[in-house]
Write a sequence for this structure.
C-alpha cells in the first residue's frame, strides 16, 4: 500500500509561528494572539510607549523645575497679589508670602487680615494710639522691606515723641497696590473703622490717583468707581458683572489661581510675561528721559481742560472729602498726605526744568496746591511732601525714587525716600497733632525741618 504523504496543511506547526501563517493554514488562532501580532497593533504599542515616555519626561522635568525653584527660594508676588474681592475689586490673599524683585527687592508677607503688615488685633489695646494708613502701592510699598517703609518709620519715630505723653503708637497699613481713592474710601468703611483708629492718614499719590478715580480715564475691569450724581457720590460696582471678575470667582478661575499660588513654575512664567511687557513699555532701562515718567499721567500737573479730567478731579475731591467726613464721624482725626512723583523730587533741578518744558508744565506742585486748597475748604489737615523732599534731594544729591534694577529717579520710593518721608511725617505729627481735640492739628501743612538723606551708593546713583 503506497505510503501517504501528509499535506502541508496537516503538518504540525512550530510553537510561536506567526498568526498570519497559522490563519493561512486554516488553523484557528485565539483573538488576543491575532491582535497582539498584527503590524498595526505593534505600531500602536510603540507609539503608546513613546507617548508615555514623553509624558513621564515632562512630569519629571516639571517636578525638577519646581523643586529647584523652591530650593532657590523663588516666588513672584505679582502673580498672586490680586485676589478677587466683592467690595474693593481685589485684595492681597491673606497669609501669602512671596518675593517682589521687579522694582527693588523685598519679601512681601501678607498677614491673616490681608494687610502687608505684622499681625494686629482688631481690638485696640488700652491707652494705645492707633494710626491707620490708606493708600496704593506707595503704602503697600512692596519695593522695600516692611521695616523700611514710611509707615514703619513713622511708628518707630513716634515712639520717642514726648508730646504724645508716652502713649504706645501703633501704625496699621491698609495700602494696596493699584488702589484709587474710591477703594480707599471702601477700605475705610469695610475694614479700617473696626480697628478704632485715632488718626486716619490718606496717602494720596498724584501721579495716577486722579486717573484711577475715573472709569473714562482708567477702565480697570476689577475696579469699583464712584460717580457724581446731583452733587452726591454714587457707587458704580459694575466690575462684579464683568467677565474678569466672573472668571476669577468661577471654579476654573479659582483652580487656576490656586495652582499659580502654589506653583513656583507658574509664578516664573507670569514673571517672564510681565518682564516682556515692562520691557516693551519702557519700564526697564538704564536712564529716565525728561519726557518719560512711567506710571504717571503728566496732565495731573496742569489745570484740567478736558471734560474727562474735569470730572475726574471733581470725583477725586469729593471722595477725599467724604473719606475725611466718615473718619471724623467715627471719632478719628484725618490727615491727607500728598506723596511725590519722581519728577517733583528729582535731585537735578535741570532735569525738573527739562521735564516741565517737555510737557508744557508751569508748576510741578499744582496737584499738591490743589489738595491743600481742598483741605482748607473742607476743614481737614493736609501735608504736602514734594517741596520739602525736593529740597532734601537737591541738597544731598540722593535719589528718592527708583532702584538699580529699574529706572532711576522715577517709580516708587526707595529706602531713602521712605525714610525721609516717614521722618517728615513723624516730625509733623509729633509737633502738630493733638489727638482727640476739636482742632487736632495746630499748624496744618507746616513740615518740620528734616535731615538730608544720606547718599546711598554715591550721589546720583539709585540704590540697589
Amino acid at each position: 500500500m503506497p505510503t501517504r504523504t501528509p499535506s502541508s496543511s496537516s503538518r504540525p506547526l512550530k510553537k510561536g509561528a506567526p498568526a498570519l501563517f497559522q490563519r493561512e493554514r486554516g488553523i484557528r488562532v485565539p483573538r488576543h494572539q491575532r491582535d497582539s501580532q498584527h503590524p498595526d497593533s505593534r505600531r500602536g504599542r510603540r507609539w503608546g510607549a513613546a507617548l508615555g515616555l514623553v509624558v513621564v519626561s515632562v512630569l519629571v522635568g516639571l517636578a525638577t523645575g519646581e523643586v529647584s525653584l523652591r530650593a532657590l527660594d523663588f516666588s513672584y508676588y505679582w502673580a498672586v497679589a490680586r485676589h478677587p474681592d466683592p467690595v474693593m475689586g481685589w485684595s492681597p490673599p491673606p497669609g501669602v508670602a512671596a518675593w517682589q524683585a521687579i522694582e527693588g527687592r523685598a519679601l512681601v508677607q501678607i498677614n491673616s487680615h490681608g494687610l502687608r503688615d505684622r499681625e494686629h488685633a482688631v481690638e485696640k489695646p488700652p491707652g494705645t494710639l492707633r494710626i491707620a494708613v490708606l493708600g496704593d502701592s506707595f503704602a503697600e510699598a512692596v519695593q522695600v522691606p516692611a521695616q523700611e517703609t514710611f509707615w514703619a518709620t513713622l511708628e518707630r519715630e513716634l515712639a520717642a515723641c514726648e508730646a504724645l505723653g508716652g502713649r504706645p503708637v501703633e501704625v496699621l497699613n491698609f495700602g494696596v497696590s493699584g488702589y484709587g481713592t474710591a477703594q480707599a474710601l471702601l477700605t475705610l468703611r469695610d475694614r479700617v473703622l473696626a480697628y478704632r483708629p485715632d488718626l486716619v492718614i490718606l496717602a494720596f499719590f498724584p501721579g495716577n490717583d486722579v486717573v484711577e478715580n475715573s472709569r473714562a480715564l482708567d477702565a480697570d475691569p476689577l475696579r469699583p468707581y464712584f460717580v457724581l450724581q446731583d452733587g452726591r457720590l454714587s457707587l458704580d460696582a459694575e466690575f462684579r458683572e464683568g467677565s474678569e471678575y466672573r472668571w476669577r470667582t468661577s471654579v476654573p478661575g479659582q483652580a487656576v489661581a490656586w495652582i499659580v499660588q502654589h506653583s513656583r513654575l507658574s509664578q516664573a512664567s507670569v514673571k517672564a510675561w510681565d518682564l516682556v511687557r515692562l520691557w516693551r513699555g519702557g519700564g526697564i532701562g538704564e536712564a529716565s528721559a525728561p519726557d518719560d515718567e512711567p506710571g504717571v499721567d503728566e496732565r495731573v500737573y496742569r489745570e484740567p481742560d478736558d471734560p474727562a479730567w474735569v470730572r475726574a478731579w471733581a470725583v477725586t475731591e469729593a471722595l477725599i472729602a467724604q473719606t475725611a467726613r466718615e473718619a471724623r464721624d467715627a471719632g478719628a482725626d484725618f490727615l491727607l498726605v500728598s506723596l511725590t512723583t519722581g519728577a517733583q523730587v528729582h535731585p537735578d533741578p535741570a532735569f525738573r526744568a527739562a521735564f516741565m518744558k517737555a510737557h508744557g508744565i508751569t508748576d510741578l506742585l499744582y496737584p499738591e496746591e490743589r489738595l491743600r486748597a481742598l483741605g482748607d475748604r473742607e476743614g481737614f489737615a493736609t501735608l504736602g511732601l514734594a517741596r520739602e523732599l525736593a529740597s532734601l534731594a537737591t541738597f544731598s544729591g540722593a535719589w528718592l525714587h527708583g532702584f538699580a534694577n529699574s529706572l532711576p529717579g522715577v517709580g516708587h520710593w526707595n529706602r531713602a525716600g521712605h525714610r525721609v518721608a516717614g521722618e517728615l511725617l513723624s516730625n509733623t505729627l509729633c509737633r502738630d497733632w493733638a489727638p482727640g481735640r476739636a482742632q487736632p492739628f495746630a499748624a496744618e501743612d507746616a513740615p518740620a525741618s528734616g535731615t538730608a538723606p544720606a547718599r546711598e551708593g554715591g550721589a546720583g546713583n539709585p540704590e540697589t
In short: The chain has 14 helices and eleven strands. The chain has two domains: 17-70, 78-432.
